[in-house]
Amino acid sequence: MNAAKFLLCLKENKNIRYIARKLGRSPSTISYEINRGTIVQLKSDLSIFTKYFPETGQDVYEKTVQIA
Length: 68
Fold this sequence. Notes:
Largest sheet: 2 strands, antiparallel
Distance between the termini: 22 Å
Number of strands: 2
Order of helices and strands: HHHEEH
Number of domains: 1
Strand order of the largest sheet: 1-2
Organism: Caldicellulosiruptor morganii
Domain Transposase IS30-like HTH: 10-37
Shape: flat
Pfam families: HTH_38 (PF13936)
InterPro entries: IS30-like_HTH (IPR025246)
Protein name: Helix-turn-helix domain-containing protein
Radius of gyration: 13 Å
Structural class: alpha+beta
């Protein structure tokens, strides 16, 4: 998967189907990657926000492959 294009599309709030077409992947693959790499964080005012981190997605993927 082209990480730079993927991140750019996420920053531009493109939908999953658009990203999938752009990268030549299945929408479910894109959805799985977003879910693996998205974490919930707290701001200093204790409000919650979510953010995608490619490193987190890669770590979760590698742990899943080791278990299987």
